[in-house]
């Protein structure tokens, strides 16, 4: 029994493959789960847009992000790591002569650096 036996549908908006949630919890008791026979309102777990899908749109498979959404998620992860590296560099500069220890002075410089890195990345976004 694997997750690939669930009913999925391709999101109209972002093309991700999303899980069709059975409106009736009893439906989960049946093995294999029967194909939904009526139109179902499915909310995308990626873009949160809800559409009515016809039964012929449902198929057996695994949820998966569309290439577009996959790229977007990777770009966001890259922004996060850029932020971390920037914060580390700023912290290293600011802590230049400071003894690296678990002191309030070090903690406050690290959180200042994080704040500054957030500002840099936010500014980068408005410029790009
Ligand atoms: Zn998506
Ligand atoms: Zn979607």
Explain what this protein looks like in three dimensions.
The protein folds into 2 domains: 7-60, no CATH class; 67-127, no CATH class. It is built from 2 helices and 5 strands; from the N terminus they run βββββαα. It has helices at residues 67-94, 104-127; strands at 6-10, 17-19, 40-43, 50-53, 59-61. α1 crosses α2 (104-127). The longest helix is centred in the middle third of the chain and has 28 residues, at 67-94. Bound molecules: zinc ion (ZN) (2 copies).
Keywords, separated by commas or semicolons:
128 residues, alpha+beta, 2 domains, 3-stranded antiparallel β-sheet, 5 strands, binds zinc ion
Summary of the model, kept short:
The protein is α+β, with helices and mostly antiparallel strands.
Topology at a glance:
Blueprint lengths: L5 E5 L6 E3 L20 E4 L6 E4 L5 E3 L5 H28 L9 H24 L1
Antiparallel strand pairs: 1-2, 1-5, 3-4
Helix pairs in contact: 1-2
Bound molecules: zinc ion (ZN) (2 copies).
What is the rounded distance between the termini? 47 Å
Q: Order of helices and strands, N to C?
A: EEEEEHH
Read across the widest sheet, the strand sequence of neighbours is 2-1-5
Q: What overall form do the CA principal axes indicate?
A: elongated
Strand content is 5-15%
**Distinct ligand kinds:** zinc ion
Q: Count the E strands.
A: 5
* Fraction of helical residues: 40-55%
- Poorly predicted parts: none
Structural class: alpha+beta
Overall tally of domains: 2
Number of helices: 2
Gyration radius, rounded: 23 Å
Report the average pLDDT across residues: 87
Oligomer: single chain
| Biggest sheet descriptor | 3 strands, antiparallel
